[in-house]
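Incident review: delayed structure delivery

Summary: a single-chain prediction request sat in the queue longer than the usual turnaround. Root cause was a stuck worker, restarted by the on-call engineer. No data loss occurred. The affected request and its eventual output are reproduced below so the record is complete for anyone auditing the incident later.

Affected input:
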Amino acid sequence: MNKIQIDIVSDIACPWCAIGYARLQLAMAQLEPDYEFTVQWHAFELNPNHSGQGEPILPALAKKYGRSEDEMREAQANMMAIAKDLGVNFEKLQERLTANTFDAHRLVKWAVDHDKQTEMKQALFEAYFGEAKDVSDPTVLLECVKSVGLDPEAASAVLESGQFTTAVREDEATYQKAGVSSVPAFIINNKYLISGAQEPEVLVKAFQDISAEAVA
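Output delivered after worker restart:
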């Protein structure tokens, strides 16, 4: 049995992170049952200083990247087409507002202890990209918690208490220090870095090469 540990550095506000995980799922499925995969999610904030009311995403991205709104609309439409082919809901990708994702990351950390980390991450992707919901809003966050079968009251206590703040900050500091400046980033077996939302075939070959090197 080939064992592969995958640490995924990502942000809930990153569409390519949702696409990247969907592609990773396809790659892992191709290699089963000869490979055993363990996945752990780690926090990254694309817009860590975001506060207050969210802005419409297209003008916000145009301003951030120095491009026109039409260019950003085309780029987003391309991502929507890719996501649709992968079965990922990006229906409201262009309708969402910018949002702070720090509390969402705290809930992803909390979900680890309940073996629901990946489900929580996917629920947040669905809420933000599929439904254009505000993933900084506690009500939306608790809806996501409930959707994956976790206790909203316990999650509310986490949000109110500031639990997992240190864990998220440590994640961010660790991977920034390691040189991760864009997401998604996949760290394989604590040694190899795969950057970006790579196609399943690329990931399959990478996992095969890493496994072959481990036994060489």
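Verification: The first strand starts at residue 2 and ends at 10.
Action items: add queue-age alerting; document worker restart procedure.
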